[in-house]
Amino acid sequence: MTLFSNRFTQLFGIDHPVVQGGMQWVSKAELVAAVANAGALGFLSALTQPTPEALAGEIRRCRAMTDKPFGVNLTMLPAINPPPYAEYRDAIISEGVKIVETAGNRPAEHLPALKAAGVKVIHKCTSVRHALSAERMGVDAISIDGFECAGHPGEDDIPGLVLVPAAARALRIPMVASGGFADGRGLVAALALGADGINMGTRFLCTAEAPVHEAVKARIVASDERETDLIFRSLRNTSRVSRNRVSAEVLEREAAGADFDQIRDLVSGQRGRKVYETGDTDYGIWSVGMVQGLIDDVPTVAELVGRIMGEASDIVSSRLTGLLGDCAGDKAVARVVAVSR
Asked: Are 206 and 194 in contact (CB under 8 A)?
């Protein structure tokens, strides 16, 4: 048992309470397998694959790279022509994957099939009320996104410093904190706030194994915490993206009263995909969190996870224990770690 073993790590069979969330166009086998091999929990992105059959192939490719647990993210968003979510779900089940991260819409319609197959479900949400709803549906764990996160932070604008303890107070099932995490300091803070671990997207995007152009990683390293934009606010579908020429034009059109059809050409997923493939970071919108201000290198996944766990251990055993005095000893360390229950 590691120092930070808790109910979340035990439930999902991992060594460290660190999760790599499913990122569109990014969460492919090479990244996810590296995360799993480092003792953390990684998620393939189902909808990055063009068909359910392609997803099955990607799952097999990942399994060839690791014998450790990993999962698949299934994000369900409103669409005129929605993907065949049930077929993607069935591909996950048929390939024997036992962990799924759901996001976007309520996962209720998929839970019976997933549960019948012995799949554990983590649902990603942005509010306590939605977390409680998912808990009542029967999910096994929650990933809760604070306002700092990349992608969709919801419409409540509640930062993690408030959202995480509020959710921890209300939930009975394990919960990981997402949005604004990049290092051991964040992990210890999340545990102290009542979370059972951390979920990171942007930090894993900026690793050697992330299958994106090096110019994207360099842009993250060069940017600070102020260089993101919140688009789609006028459409009640807020999304945090890297600040660039396209996000500026989207905001300009929104300010002029544009509806989605009038910005559709700018925000297409295929343009975002090209950013990752070509390294032209001004070609389309692409998700990044405020946490980019804490990122200043491009380590391997193993180096990153090892560093996070080392920093967290040092903080708990040295800095925090020292604040309690010499008499605290190992009991103080145990109390701090036990915050994650």
From this structure: no
